[in-house]
Design a protein that fits this description.
There is one protein chain. This protein is α/β, with parallel strands linked by helices. It has a single domain (5-182), classed as Ribonuclease H-like superfamily/Ribonuclease H (Nucleotidyltransferase, domain 5), CATH 3.30.420. It is built from six helices and five strands. The protein has helices at residues 46-64, 80-99, 109-117, 124-135, 145-159, 172-178; strands at 5-12, 17-26, 29-39, 68-72, 103-107. α1 packs parallel to α2, α3 crosses α5 and α4 (124-135) packs across α5.
Length: 184
């Protein structure tokens, strides 16, 4: 059964700017709780960036008590180093959520854009404009990474039809039980 009163945390992972947004679902109503970014472009140490991502995800969870995490999956690009960095950022964000026993749901950038705008090739600006309409907020944030994080949460809400959910995990044990090859 689908919970009709819940909070969803959406994350657009990044090692320079991580976007996030939280929505509250009350019955059939969807409300914006908060959105923002974690700016890391001035942090030189890659390991410290990952720690800051982990800490921010945990602090968002502790403050807003979301029920689920929706996160944008890394997309395949030509720059392998960029993909590795993005994968690490996503991994520590997921680890932060799992450390607080949240279920994890991953969506491709195309799936998120399709869900919000009807086009998998929509621009960040088009996604932001549609979210402004859906969630009734006026000001576009300085960094569209914030609306990208918010879009992941809204996409997840739109996907939540009985029987349509991707596999979600409530913690490391559950994940490792289904993925024994992932053990170190």
């Amino acid at each position: 059964m689908i919970k009709t009163d819940k909070i969803i945390l959406g994350i657009d992972p990044g090692t320079n700017i991580m976007g996030y947004g939280l929505i509250h679902i009350k019955g059939t109503k969807m409300e914006l709780v908060v959105m923002g970014v974690l700016r890391l472009e001035k942090v030189a140490d890659p390991a410290l960036k990952l720690k800051k991502i982990f800490d921010r995800v945990v602090s968002l969870i502790d403050e807003y008590k979301p029920d689920e995490l929706a996160i944008e999956a890394p997309f395949f690009g030509k720059n392998v180093q960029s993909m590795l960095k993005l994968g690490r950022a996503q991994g520590v964000a997921i680890a932060g959520a799992l450390s607080r026993d949240l279920t994890i749901n991953e969506y491709s950038p195309k799936k998120i854009k399709q869900s919000i705008t009807g086009s998998g090739n929509a621009s960040k600006e088009q996604v932001a404009a549609m979210l402004k309409t859906l969630l009734n907020f006026k000001e576009t944030p300085e960094f569209l990474d914030a609306t990208d994080g918010l879009a992941a949460a809204v996409c997840h809400h739109f996907q939540r039809k009985p029987g349509s959910a991707k596999k979600a995990y409530t913690g490391w044990k559950a994940f490792l039980a289904d993925n024994p090859d992932k053990k170190g």
